[in-house]
């Protein structure tokens, strides 16, 4: 049996190293794995089924804010995700909660806060700072619409948001251009969008800076 693992996904090497060091000292029974982008995050999750928790930064390459959280929750609904971010605005914390995170840790928090949060989530609880932000019905509706997408459709949507053409998306995903067209048609229907531009705007709204 492989050793249970925790995955730290953050593109900042120094901060990731510091977090990994804390986790290794406080949770010695867990292997600690690392990822620095959306693609390495997906690869790690595919290669290591023993991962029991993901500690996730919101601003890695290949992500659009909360898109990585939604992608992990869609592909691995039983896997708890704790968001770690330097943006600890109450609205960001509330959005993380609504998009399916099990906890939120500010990058300015002390090591003990990180330990307590991870312990709580590993025990099946949640770990969020006390916040004063209204629940957003728009975010709830957006999360529900995005949850209808298959993992391949979600990945296609992110490429659409990056402005890639169908031919380019096909090359990136290793599928035919016809398959991409089928995905895009399904995406627009499920998201109730009339154009690729409208779908891209939805993805942009997942950025943590979108506090309006």
Explain the overall architecture.
The structure is a single chain. The chain is α/β, with parallel strands linked by helices and 212 residues long. The chain has two domains: 5-122, Response regulator (Rossmann fold, 3-Layer(aba) Sandwich), CATH 3.40.50; 148-204, Orthogonal Bundle (Arc Repressor Mutant, subunit A). The chain is built from ten helices and five strands; from the N terminus they run βαβαβαβαβαααααα. It has helices spanning 13-26, 38-47, 67-75, 90-98, 111-122, 137-146, 151-161, 166-173, 177-191, 196-204; strands spanning 5-9, 31-35, 51-56, 81-85, 103-106. Strands 2-1-3-4-5 form a five-stranded parallel β-sheet, sandwiched between helices. α4 (90-98) links the parallel β4 and β5.
List keywords for this structure.
globular, Arc Repressor Mutant, subunit A, 212 residues, Rossmann fold, 5-stranded parallel sheet, alpha/beta
Secondary-structure class:
alpha/beta
Write down the overall mean pLDDT: 90
Could you give the distance between the termini?
47 Å
CATH architecture of the largest domain: 3-Layer(aba) Sandwich
How do the SSEs run, as a string of H and E?
EHEHEHEHEHHHHHH
CATH homologous superfamily placement of the largest domain: Response regulator
């Amino acid at each position: 049996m492989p050793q249970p693992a925790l995955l730290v996904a953050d593109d900042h090497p120094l901060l990731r190293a510091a977090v990994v060091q804390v986790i290794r000292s406080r949770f010695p029974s867990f292997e600690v794995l690392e990822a620095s982008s959306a693609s390495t995050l997906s690869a790690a999750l595919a290669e290591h089924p023993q991962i029991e928790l993901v500690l996730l930064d919101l601003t890695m390459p290949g992500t659009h804010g909360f898109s990585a959280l939604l992608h992990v929750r869609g592909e691995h609904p039983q896997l708890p995700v704790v968001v770690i971010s330097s943006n600890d605005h109450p609205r960001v914390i509330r959005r993380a909660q609504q998009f399916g995170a099990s906890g939120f840790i500010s990058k300015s928090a002390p090591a003990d806060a990180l330990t307590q949060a991870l312990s709580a989530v590993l025990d099946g609880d949640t770990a969020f700072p006390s916040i004063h932000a209204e629940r957003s019905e728009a975010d709830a509706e957006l999360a529900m619409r995005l949850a209808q997408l298959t993992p391949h459709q979600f990945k296609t949507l992110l490429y659409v948001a990056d402005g890639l053409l169908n031919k380019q998306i096909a090359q990136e995903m290793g599928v035919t251009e016809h398959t991409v067209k089928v995905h895009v048609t399904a995406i627009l229907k499920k998201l109730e969008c009339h154009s690729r531009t409208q779908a891209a705007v939805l993805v942009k709204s997942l950025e943590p800076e979108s506090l309006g």
